[in-house]
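#dry-run=false #mode=assembly
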Amino acid sequence: MSASISTIGSGGSLLAVSDLRVVFSGGGPVSRLFSKDKGVRAVDGVSLEVAPSEIVGIVGESGSGKTTLALAALGLTHVTGGHVLHGGEDITRLGAARIRRVRRNAVMIFQDPHSSLSPRMRVSSLLLEPYFIHKVPESERYGVAELLEMVELPSRLAGLYPHELSGGQARRVGIARALSLRPRLIVADEPTTGLDVSAASSILNLLQSLRVSYGTAYLIITHALNVVGYLADRIAVMYLGRIVESGPAEQIYDAPLHPYTRALIAAIPEMDSRSGKKEPFASGEIPSPRDPPPGCHFHPRCPFAEQTCRSVAPLLEEARPNQSVACHRWQEVASREAP
Amino acid sequence: MAKTSRSTKARNGVALLLRTPGGLIGTVIVVGLIVLAIFGPELAPYSFSQIDVNNPLQGPTLHHLLGTDQLGRDLLSRLIYGTRIELEVAVPAVATALGVGLVLGLLGGYLGGLVDNVVVLFTDTCQSFPAIVLALALLTVLGPSLPNLIIVIAVTFSPNYARTSRALVLSVKQNQYILAERALGARRLRIMVRHVLPNIVAPLFILLAMDIPSAITAEAGLSFLGLGVPPPDPSWGSILSDGFNSIFQAPWAVLFASMALGIATIGFLLFGEALRDVLDPRLRGVTGWRA
Amino acid sequence: MTPGDEVVLALENVGVEYESRGTTMRVLPGVSLELRRGEVVGLVGESGSGKSTLALAILRLLPANGRIVGGQILLDGSIDLTGLGEEALREMRGPKIAMVFQDPLTSLNPTFKIGGQMVDVQAAHAPRRARRVDRKAFLEKAVSLLGKVGLPDPDQIVRSYPHQLSGGMRQRVMIAMALSLEPELLIADEPTSALDVTLEAQILALLRSIQASRNLTILFVTHDLNVVAQICDRVVVMYAGEIVEQGGVLDVFEHPQHPYSEALLQAVPTRRNRGRTLATIPGQVPSLLREVRGCRFADRCGYTKQCCRTESPPVVASGASQAVRCHMRGPATLWESQEEKAQT
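#status=ok
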């Protein structure tokens, strides 16, 4: 199958998000005029890139804005500011037809497998539908059996309806749909959440092997650090709409710089941390995205917070080669070894 | 999981339909009415317009099982023929209302914006008139005849279908599979037809089944007022209307015509509810009967 | 505090059936388990393992179509919970055994203030005469408990409604309520599954400290092996309604005896197994509708032999406190002599 869209664009990245802002405001223009409510700043100035065949993991807890980021990156939700470039083209400025072409190369796998499959269509129709949408000539299509095989599903599932599939099977059908167009980039929203350990591990194995076979790049959105730790090349940690740290996965695990990242890593329950005292993890809870704390969003929970943190929002700056962090005091934080 | 074939599913569905007493009665009545409408007039003992001035306003006798009306016409035959008329009016009327309402609701609900505003304006305006007034006004302009009757009833019913289908569309729109289709690049028309439409027809279909008696009653009402099917066609409403004049001497016409209306209404209601339970028990709230 | 030897709760051969559309499913064939005072026991299993059913069965909180068939649940060695009437059971729920559930939003009554709910819980278990009089005392105790579970400003919390609190706060309120009657045993059914990871860490630390200060016995039901590793002393692994392995956490995690436990532990992605293919368990949990001959895990096990399909595997003790239900761990010579049975 031929590649249909050039992937060479600003620096060769498949996806480049630049200073993206997505704000959801409650009411219409009139209420916005009269109320103080500035709305929810779901994504508050995020920049990131995904290179071909790269796996980038976006990690964040609830309210971090990661799902909104994923949707905005694919043009599925409105964008209040900033740019989203696919292969150099800014989709926020493209017409419907051009965006449709972009959609051939950047697809999404959704969090809830069952609700993302049209309930009255059989699996076979669901799998072939992308070809009809994009008018792909027969010679360039995969067959239903082939697609099912790619995701390790038995061919007899082709005639079933979504509600007749198990969660794991439905998820794989979603993956097969995404793969049918041979995309360059797959955005996966919580690919393993809600799955049993054994089902989750086979999905991860599948994603890994697909990358090896087809060179697909992934943008993985998850709250499970262990998943990105296992799969991702690079990680970006989000908190309340902002990226607080980003860098190579191993580097971030070995030497996290941002207090929130350190708290996240420390919070992963595991055997090794049974006995000893651990890093002080973050106290309190994530505040509502509707009313984020001023300055650095993390300061109310941060054991290292001081005056500047409460008033000035830190910018993402390169602290080490390839590793960036948004923290005023990262140098002091780094020097504090975990006990 | 084994795949159930379409025919097995259909058979299971019918079995489920007939399982409850309500479903059984309703289905029997509906099927009976349909059979009566198709074959009845041929089987009726008399022609509906056969006048017998010597035997007006008779009660039930051997010759006239349900009696006669003021012109000596056999009530049984008239009622049987009336079944055909009622269904001839009600079914196309409601089906048209469904079709029009569905399209409007689909367009308005999915496209939103200006289109939606227009649709909502239309439905609100139509529904702000009492249906009777609207029907009377339209009939006066168009003149009473069978086709016009169908049109008028369809017009008065379609706002409700538009509203319901719009609400269903809005709800379906929230589903993630719609987002998934958009993410794949599907055009709006495709999404509306292939993904929204199939998921909203079931409740609308059930509404249709349950609206047929409404349409029948509407027709009967209009005929009662003299604006329905013109004589000598024996719609149940005109039988009622005629019988009303002689209700004290010979209440038979009113009695039996009312019974016919009642049975038809109950039959379709029970059938509609059983249908709903078979197709989707979750719809209990959506298809509530409106008086 | 190290766990003592006193057995707080003993389940002996407890079976549970569900009835659905005319068919009866034996969800738990016969489970035996002991909980010692001061222990934190992790009950771990995937969906369909029966772990939640077991937890609910202890307090007889099964849904209407479920019932306990056979077996005993002995509290403090003497009281058989399976035989108690409703009123007597009610007296157990709270003062003896308390339960914390997964979703605090639906566990709290949205129309009453927190303070009122906590007072009601205590009042319901107080002797009749004392109820009215002691409400003030109950409220004070509630406030004190809310403070102990780490909630700032408990006076404000008792005056709030559930929806005014965040998820984490609600879960702490649940824990406080559970503790208000000083139970001996706390059953926590996936209490942190719906919480963010940083919050989960806080709740786990809280449970650990409560356990230490009161010598509380905790049965922690979860699907997350890592959580078990973090706070439990003993782990009980369930599969398809049976306990397939149990033992000290360190023992089981480092030397899993049962093929299922082994596979589970290898299937969890961590940065340590980056780049490597994760272990997967082929197939699916067997349907409970059919009676299964032999080992329930046979179809998915990598070590299956003929005996696994024909005979129920025995429960074999291994090491000081480990027990596993597997033919492979039985007498070595017996296992060796078995024929290989090809996987179909």
